[in-house]
Amino acid sequence: MELKQIRPSDYDSLKKFFYKQKYPLCAYSLPSILVWSGKSHKPYGAISGDALIVCVEFDAIQEKNRHMILPISPNGESSPEELFDLANEAGFERYWFVPEDYIDRFGRDQVEALFEIQEQAELEDYIYLTEDLANLKGNKYAKKRNLIKQFKREYLQKDRARAEDITSDDVPECLDFMKKWCEERDCDADPEADLACEKEAAINALDNIEILDVSGTLLRVDEEVCAFGIISHLTEDMAAMHFEKAFSHIKGLYQFFDSLCAKQLLGKYKYINKESDMGIPGLAKAKRSYHPVMMLKSYKLTIR
After folding, report:
1. Which of 36, 119, 136, 296 is at 20 to 30 A from 277, Cα to Cα?
2. DSSP reduced 3-state for 262
3. Which of 173, 234, 267 is nearest to 23 (CA)?
4. What contacts 24+ positions apart, CB below 8 Å, involve 64-67?
5. Within a domain: 279
6. Three-state SS for 265?
């Protein structure tokens, strides 16, 4: 198997493998695979039959995190026996981001005959009904609706805010916003931490927004970019919200922007996958406050 590094510029040649992609975890979004690349980790790919094999290499400090994801093919999925053979051929010991329903389809006994199964609790994906996030109906969303009203009164009604699609011309301003957003949160305190890696991924996505088939939205307040979001197709009925950032000091901004992004997906996707909380308590609390309709478990398979 000849693995080579894959980059955003490979998007057009790889997207055919994701036709009819059914795995609902955000790890199986091609744009996400390509932009999550940085100094410590890089995605590699190879073709095996009609499937794309994706591996993620890490530097020596994080070598234990080297992993593959399930092969991606428009014509079906690989059996546990095929996964075992592919891992040995590629020189990897483990798969990450294995959906629970994959294990259910083949049976735990069949999978455990070849792999040790471990739940990746910190990598559960938060899944929401698009309608819930767009309309925020009911008492459980009352506080968020109130914050949105305050934002509209102060900014929209005074023509101080407007939303736009992100184009390549907007990227420098979005990158400047991202820098300020990260300074608020000290993203770069640990270069190997999830926030620092996410920053790199968001920058990669913005730099390549014209070639990745993603939908980007920004929001300006007083002519300054104060929020942006990047969304991609995941499955037939699910979109993936990869990055959604907003300044916290503007009251109601995040709540308004999140609802706006969801409204753009109404009628197109039933669900929105807003990825995991990366084990960050504050992020977990914020994601739970939007009442996910389900949490999708992720599993690690390690060769016995």
Report:
1. 136
2. helix
3. 234
4. 65/41, 66/92, 66/93, 66/94, 67/92, 67/94, 67/95, 67/96, 67/300
5. yes
6. coil
Residue that finishes a domain, picked among 76, 104, 124:
124
- Over residues 62-88, the pLDDT tens digits come to 889 999 999 999 999 999 999 999 999
Give the global pTM: 0.94
Number of domains in the chain: 2
Structural domain span for residue 197: 126-295
Question: Residue 98: exposed, middle, or buried by beta-carbon count in 10 A (0-12, 13-18, 19+)?
Answer: buried
Q: What is the pLDDT of residues 5-37, one digit of tens each?
A: 999 999 999 999 998 899 999 999 999 999 998
Contact status, residue 134 vs residue 188, Cβ threshold 8 Å: no
C-alpha distances (whole Å) from 21 to each of 66, 70, 124, 126, 268 are 23, 11, 19, 19, 16
Q: How far is residue 168's CA from residue 156's CA, in Å, rounded to a whole number?
A: 25
Coil, helix or strand for 292?
coil
Copy the structure tokens of residue 57: 């290499």
- Evaluate whether 24 touches 99 at the Cβ level (below 8 Å): yes
Beta-carbon contacts of 202 under 8 Å, excluding residues fewer than 6 positions away, are 35, 178, 230, 242, 243, 245
Q: How far is CA 242 from CA 32, 230, 275, 297, in A?
A: 7, 6, 7, 18
User: Looking at residue 142, which CATH number applies to its domain?
Assistant: 3.40.630.30
Backbone angles phi, psi at 161, to 5 degrees: -135, 145
Helix axes 253-263, 142-151, angle to 10 degrees: 100
Strand partners, 116: 302
What residues pair up with 94 in beta bridges, in sequence order? 302
Q: Kindly state the DSSP code that residue 32 receives in the 8-state scheme.
A: H
